[in-house]
Structure formats: structure tokens, C-alpha cells
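To make the argument concrete, we let one protein speak, a sequence paired with a row of C-alpha cells, as a model reads it:
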Amino acid sequence: MARTHIDMELRWSDQDAYGHVNNVTFARFLEEARVRTFWLGTGREQTGMERHFRGDDPTGPKMLVAGLQIEYTRVLEYS
């Protein structure tokens, strides 16, 4: 699958008491990117997959995320 870029702004509620972006927020970012790429097709690059997962065709393909694993490598400071 092609790589795509999604621009998202941090919200004040994304940070924890230490000013770091909360770990749960990263899973939300991935969900938002998935929706924007496959359903809305609003990534900077077109991947060709946008029309396949819109959900307006009852017989069309659907997407199910069966698992998610995130390896945190460093702290993301809220800015």
C-alpha cells in the first residue's frame, strides 16, 4: 500500500499532567488517519484506496482493525 501523510493538530486534551502527549492519543491519531485516508480521502497524497472503504456501498469491501501494536520510542512534548 502507498504511504500517505495526514496533517493533524494537537489538542490541549491530548497531553498528560507532565505536558507529554498521552500514549492513548497515538491510537486515536492512527484511527483518525485511517478514517481520513480510506473513507474521506483527505491525505496529502492520493493512495487509490479512498473509494474502496467509504461504506456507502453495502456490498463493497469493509475494513476491520483486528489488532494494534505501538512501540513508543520517545516522548512527544505538547507544543
User: Anything to note?
Assistant: The helical segments are 23-40. Residues 23 and 72 are 8 Å apart (CA to CA). The chain has a mean pLDDT of 77.
